[in-house]
């Protein structure tokens, strides 16, 4: 066997030194993250790996990656669930190439232990996936599901693994009926179908509105008055007005703060503020303008609202959630203290609440910044935990142009922490609503196969969308697992 040239030997030795130095730095820097998360002494394996991953990603690895790729070694690009194991494997390969002592090699089970923990966490939270695909399918139940058990059974027959009940709609009687139909379907098909109930959180919406006429639309340059209380007031200068569901929205705005309406169909900026009112100037709308309507969502990405994610309504709804659900969806969670608040509320309800899984909905910039802290705090609770990438509100909050980048990063963070993720909002939306998908949404749905669960919203063609997604996810299973391509045989050429 030919030995490497002197030049090659020097490069391999240099690489080995660099990888060893990186490993040392990662271990040292990870301790700072664990200390910040109050997890230095008792971190779960996933939290410990997450700290190492974040430490690693604070380094620019691109030059090192290219040098490793040239030698046919791992480029470190797929180590989310196994940071130290991958660094050690690369160091071992380099040592062997250099002709040095071959260090012990981790067993296959040891190397892929992070993947196994993630799979187990997904099973605990959602239930086991079907044999044909790793990614579960969640479906938001419509209101009519309460009175139509056949609808729920049909969804289960087509592949629904998780039923979502939105507590912003209907009431406890309807929720109990929906959950009962899900249990019946689960028994009928002989597999575990779980129930997620989303508590509403502080709804930030328009209420009463005033417009010049029914056909009037807000265009760029128009002015809009938001009122904290009372009837919406229009005048010669401001022809559109709306009251809001949360007075704090108006009271905490500052001049220059952005306000987005109806999932970003309109963007405005606070122009002036008076007691109990804010005048906004519209800077962008969808083509043709936007109608001002009641019960439309508002997002304030620049404004610190200081709202509790657990409202009085949510507290009351928890009793029904404990009775009906397998897991609870937590809206507007942003800080570790928000996890503590919910845990305290659940603890007051005794042993029945201990079995509930928890899903943190990531929908605001603060939640993104605090995601590692949220994961570390939730891990301390020892209940099944997952993260929902709530892409509707998230896009409005951080900007549509950043969404694609951010949803990838959230997937990486969750994989590093061995936390299952839900890919949510507008998946196959055109297909669900009209029966005909767009090309772009088919690609989006295919990429959802990297999450542990993908959520479909309700709509008239939800059954057809389930059929398509079931097939699509099963096919994509043969091509990728997370960031790793799986090279099944190609049949098209």
Overview of this protein structure:
There is one protein chain. The protein is of the alpha/beta class and 493 residues long. It has three domains: 6-111, no CATH class; 117-202 and 308-483, Phosphoenolpyruvate-binding domains (TIM Barrel), CATH 3.20.20; 206-299, M1 Pyruvate Kinase, Domain 3, CATH 2.40.33.10. Helices cover 44% and strands 17% of the residues. It has 18 helices and 17 strands. Strands 1-2-3-11-12-13-14-15 form an eight-stranded parallel barrel, surrounded by seven helices. Strands 4-6-5-9-8-7-10 form a seven-stranded mixed sheet. A two-stranded antiparallel sheet has the order 16-17. It is globular and about 85 Å long. The mean pLDDT is 93.
Give a quick set of tags describing it.
493 residues, 17 strands, M1 Pyruvate Kinase, Domain 3, alpha/beta, 3 domains, TIM Barrel, 7-stranded mixed β-sheet, 44% helix
Which percent bin holds the helix content?
40-55%
Strand content: 15-25%
What spatial form do the alpha-carbon principal axes imply? globular
| Number of beta strands | 17
Q: What is the terminal-to-terminal distance?
A: 37 Å
Which structural category do the helix and sheet elements fall into?
alpha/beta
Q: What average pLDDT do the residues reach? A: 93
In what order do the strands lie side by side in the largest sheet? 1-2-3-11-12-13-14-15
Catalogue the unreliable spans.
none
Overall tally of structural domains: 3
CATH homologous superfamily identity of the largest domain: Phosphoenolpyruvate-binding domains
- CATH class of the largest domain equals Alpha Beta
CATH topology of the largest domain: TIM Barrel
How is the main sheet built? Answer: 8 strands, parallel, barrel
Number of helices: 18
> What's the CATH architecture name of the largest domain?
Alpha-Beta Barrel
- The radius of gyration over CA amounts to 25 Å
